[in-house]
Write a structure and sequence with these properties.
Blueprint: E1 2-8, H1 21-56, H2 63-68, H3 71-89, H4 95-114, H5 122-154, E2 171-177, H6 236-248, H7 254-263, H8 270-283
Antiparallel strand pairs: 1-2
Helix pairs in contact: 1-5, 3-4, 3-5, 4-5, 6-8
Amino acid sequence: MSAPTRVDASLTPVEAPSTPVNVDHAITAVAAALTVVLTAVAFWLSYEHLQEVAAAHGMAEAVARSWAWPATVDLFIVIGELLILRASLAHRVDWWAIMLVTAGDGASIALNVAGVGQDAGALNYVVAAVPPVAALLAFGALMRQVHAYLARRTSTGVATPPPGVEGPSTPVIVSVDRPAVVPPVEPRHDAGPVPELPAAVHSVEDASTPVAPDASPVERPSTAVDLCMPVVYPNRVDQLVRALYGTDFTQPSTARMTQTMAAAGLGASESTARTARGRVKAREPYLADFPATIAG
């Protein structure tokens, strides 16, 4: 007979994480902080250069407008990255957001490079192109970290222990086949021979046979029943004559009808009896099919 044995799952060797929890959290926090700083610096450098380009091309006297003009380029990158983050959390692709990021970043790089001038050296163009490219990459890395954080918060409603924290052990029931133990029987001197003990009876679980119910409804045949109203005879003589039809299911004779009438104190007129029999047959024509007795 198989006996269940409780095995503690916590005793099972589990490979511990190689990185301590505190170190992992510290690395994540430092990487996030540096990403924010890099994004801010790259956007500031790109924004500052675009402001100089705007001031050198028609907005030198309008300082406020020259500082507002770069936002018409760089904000497309921010809006597109935020829309991409929303789409990735919903497990879909937002091509409109990708187009916004591509257009904003392309325009920012092109304007920063074009603002250097035509006779500048190659290194000047590289210096001008680095801030917008760094802004794009840094802001994308920042959105990736935000996506990972939000995905962990909304993935499941089950709170899982962080790495390195031992969770509660769950006992696992393992079925182990063991031979049935039969206690020894001490022989009694005042009794006869001890009968042999039967072999260990293995518990056999009856297999349950599922019964599939009949899905199709069974229509019961409907039998039409003709309901007819009972015939009521107000005349006392008619009532006596009608009752004679139900005694032996034959046509009552005149003599029988007069005897019944006389017994009921209604006289013994043969004409009255025949007239009553005719009224009964007229109201219930099927009574004429009853066999006739001796005519009277």
